[in-house]
Amino acid sequence: MRPNINITHTLNGRVKDYAEQENKSLEEAYREIIEAGLEAVEHPNES
Q1: How many structural domains comprise the chain?
Q2: Are the C-beta atoms of 46 and 40 separated by less than 8 Å?
Q3: Is residue 45 situated within a structural domain?
Q4: How much is the pLDDT for 7?
């Protein structure tokens, strides 16, 4: 599953690699990455 946004094939490949390494579906990997990214931008000073 590739989101309906314009992202590079390279970036999509990195998500696919992450999904494989973590034994997750591509949908799960995208969801996890997007949620982590949102946390990072909403709370930039928390680690």
Answers
A1: 1
A2: no
A3: no
A4: 86
* C-alpha closest to that of 30 among 4, 9, 3, 5: 3
Give the Cα-Cα-Cα angle 27, 38, 41 (nearest 5 degrees). Answer: 150
Residue 17 within a domain: yes
Is 11 part of a structural domain of the chain?
yes
CA 16, 19, 21: angle at the middle one, nearest 5?
A: 110
Query: 6-45 burial string, b = 16+ CB within 10 Å, else e?
Result: eeeeeeeeebeeebeeeeeeeeebbeeeeeeeeeeeeeee
Q: What is the pLDDT of residues 1-47, one digit of tens each?
A: 555 788 899 999 999 999 999 999 999 999 999 999 999 999 888 76
Range of the domain at 13: 7-32
